[in-house]
Design a protein that fits this description.
Elements lengths: L1 E3 L5 H7 L5 E3 L10 E6 L8 H10 L3 E8 L10 H10 L3 E6 L4 H15 L2
Parallel strand pairs: 1-2, 1-3, 3-4, 4-5
Bound molecules: flavin mononucleotide.
Flavin mononucleotide (FMN) binds next to helix 1 and strand 4.
Pfam family, one: Flavodoxin_NdrI
Protein name: Class Ib ribonucleoside-diphosphate reductase assembly flavoprotein NrdI
């Protein structure tokens, strides 16, 4: 399972490149099977508020995180949401993508998904 959140469409695009049905985070979403999380970065290297709330309820089955950011923000905060989630929940940061990323990113994510997430 793939769970994502997207504000301006980049993460939605990334999720659409994977052969799995992505589910968008909503207030009510509760997940009780292994999933891969894909998020953007907010603020200055911050986790989007809705992702913080989602993980408070659903971190148990999160097997890895993929983050999109914008490298123009500078390397200390580029993709910072992914770094923070990985450190807080002790899960792998699978890939950090600049905006929509590239084909090689989608292939690496797909491989991780097949081997470490998919049931
Ligand atoms: C208000 C705001 C703050 C952002 N802060 C960061 C940041 O600190 N680090 C980063 O790498 N990207 C940052 N970004 C860039 C987004 O994470 C990036 O454009 C991402 O691809 C957006 O994904 P989405 O189109 O799915 O919403 C910021 C974007 C906005 C609008």
């Amino acid at each position: 399972m793939i769970v994502y959140t997207s504000r301006t469409g980049n993460v939605r695009y990334i999720a659409s490149k994977l052969t799995a049905d992505p589910i968008e985070i909503s207030k009510e979403l509760m997940v009780n099977k292994p999933y891969l999380l894909i998020t953007y970065t907010d603020g200055l290297g911050d986790i989007p508020a809705k992702v913080i709330r989602f993980l408070e309820q659903n971190a148990k089955f999160c097997k890895g995180v993929v983050v999109s950011g914008n490298s123009n923000f500078g390397h200390t905060v580029f993709g910072g949401a992914g770094e923070k989630i990985a450190a807080t929940y002790h899960i792998p940061l699978v890939r950090k993508l600049d905006l929509r990323g590239y084909q090689a990113d989608y292939e690496a994510i797909q491989k991780f998904y097949e081997t470490r997430v998919k049931e």
